[in-house]
Amino acid sequence: MCGIFGCVLKSGSAAPIIHSALKRLEYRGYDSVGEATVNMGKLFIKKDAGKIDEVHSLLNLDDLPGEIGIGHTRWATHGAPSRVNSHPHFSCSEPPKIAVVHNGIVENFMELKKELDDAGHVFRSKTDTEVIAHLIEENIGEKELALKTPSSSPFEKAIFNAINRLQGSFAVAVVSSYEPNKVFCARNESPLVLGVAENAFYFASDIPAFLPLTNKAVYVENGEMAILSKNAFEIKKIFDGSSVTRDLKQIDWAPEMAEKQGYPHFMIKEIYEQPRCLRDTLRLQDKYLELLTTFLDRAREVIMVACGTSYHACLAASYMFSKLSFLATHPVIASEFTGQHGKSVNIDSTILAVSQSGETADTLAAVETARQRAATILGLTNVVGSTLTRVSRVYLSQQSGPEIGVAATKTFTSQLSALSQLALRLAKKRGKISQEDIDILDEKVRRIPDIVEKIIETQKEKVKKLATKYRDKSCFFFLARGISYATALEGRLKLMEIAYMPAIAFPAGESKHGPISLIEKGFPVVFVCPPDQTRKTVIGNIMEMKARGALIVAICEENDEEIIRIADDYIEIPKGIPEILSPIPYVVPLQLFAYYMAIERGCDPDMPRNLAKSVTVK
Ligand code: F6R
């Protein structure tokens, strides 16, 4: 996730406006920043790695001439944060004639890059974005696609030709000395919205970027290109160039709501973002998935190290690797790793470190112990350029964009999506399950984002009511078996850290070896019970709890009559989810429950006491 912004002013200087808009988009990414303006037919570009304030203090981002320009705040996905990988990217010509900013992932960039390499283009960066600039350049003077409304200039034709070749998700914007009075921006899947003011037109990834400047917005839809000039803007379909008319929308958000896109808290915004993040996680780079799979396949022993939510993702992943690819992996809480495995880990060990921030001190300390004993380090993180990416032999980016809420939500589901894809790939490599089963599971992984979206839409109100009902309880139990034990642990962690509700989680089978002594009339017990092979036994555990007066809240498959009949309350999850993927949808109601419990109990979900987003001390 990155932030893009641009403007065409009737008069004045674009650069300071772009700079302050990027500050308002910084929550979308903050590892690099850049701007390009056009003045007197020439392009001016400033960019570098670092937070906006750091780069501004070195380069003075306000000091670029011109009334037209584009800007970008980056969250690296392809290529580590560096000056050369920062946006805007430009084509071969010197001085640059085409500058491009982009949010999203160009899935076919390797193929396009090869084609452009062969045509003699010279690439400077490791990004997918740079292909767009070269592709436009390559298309200048080429035959136009059969557009319904013929484009007005060779440069516009070149943009249409180029954008029509892109696959994946993008919101892309272009300025050029070929067409110095216009900004072109186009969208497929990544967000793009126009701001309309008396003296200017803007485009941005999100409304907050231009909200202090105008509250009149026009949404650009998937497959559309907007062309902004001083006196007008037009929207055309990318596919055939036909014109689109779209009404202005009045935006009534207060500025403090705007950053959260109208949501009251970052936590709920990020819960709602999960379908989109999961779609992005489906676009993981094949090359790195394959490399990681090869390392895992050859490993003598695999130890997964992580903390908190990331540890819960590892625990779920250990079931995935075992069931799908017959690989035994050991999830270890990072702070325990050195004590538990410090002496036994060696050159034959492979460590898969999982960390959203890539900076968690305990995880990095575990990695350091393993590195010193010559183990192979693999990483899964959200922050390309973090310490974890630098110390890993190979790493995978979980692709969920900055997570601002202290409680990890989209991190858990995106990590699980990435890990399940690894497990599936390994299963295929090892020939452990049939191609037919792999195809079915692949298809199911692709359906997960829609399922998560449906759960949020259909179950949100019900979960809210549950929070009202249970807000005054003094303790909660979370029980589950198999892979759902990880889901139970994660649901319990969210409730504790956000709503300050004491809670314990156990594998349901362990409950009668001690914890059951807590149960008395009215004690709430949450069971995570998808319809896998543990279901029958879990029903037995529910009955044990009921017999002692517990109140049962079940997270079960829709229309699971047997469970619905015995539960006091239940949340239904759509049918047809394979066991190994079940933690992704089944955790969503538990995230919502923690959030609404926090609200009911007067806690601020975005600022839980004593906690920090990234724990950089041991
Ligand atoms: C819980 C939470 C923490 C983190 C943990 C690890 O909601 O956010 O438990 O999961 O501090 O952080 P990363 O994944 O950045 O290593």
Bound molecules: fructose -6-phosphate
Strand order of the largest sheet: 3-2-4-1-10-9-11-15
What integer value in Å does the Rg equal?
26 Å
CATH class of the largest domain: Alpha Beta
Which fold name is given in CATH as the topology of the largest domain? Glutamine Phosphoribosylpyrophosphate, subunit 1, domain 1
Coarse structural class: alpha/beta
Largest beta-sheet characterization: 8 strands, antiparallel
The CA-CA distance between the termini, in Å, is 29 Å
Helix/strand layout:
Elements: E1 3-9, H1 14-24, E2 32-39, E3 42-49, H2 52-59, E4 68-74, E5 89-90, E6 98-106, H3 109-118, H4 130-139, H5 154-165, E7 168-176, E8 183-188, E9 193-196, E10 200-204, E11 216-219, E12 224-228, E13 233-237, E14 243-244, E15 249-250, H6 255-258, H7 266-281, H8 286-298, E16 301-306, H9 308-325, E17 329-333, H10 334-341, E18 349-355, H11 361-372, E19 376-381, H12 387-391, E20 394-397, H13 410-430, H14 435-470, E21 476-480, H15 484-499, E22 503-507, E23 524-529, H16 535-547, E24 551-557, H17 561-566, E25 569-573, H18 583-600
Parallel strand pairs: 16-17, 16-18, 18-19, 19-20, 21-22, 21-23, 23-24, 24-25
Antiparallel strand pairs: 1-4, 1-10, 2-3, 2-4, 5-6, 6-7, 7-8, 8-12, 9-10, 9-11, 11-15, 12-13, 13-14
Helix pairs in contact: 3-4, 4-5, 7-13, 7-14, 8-13, 9-13, 9-15, 10-11, 13-14, 13-18, 14-18, 15-18
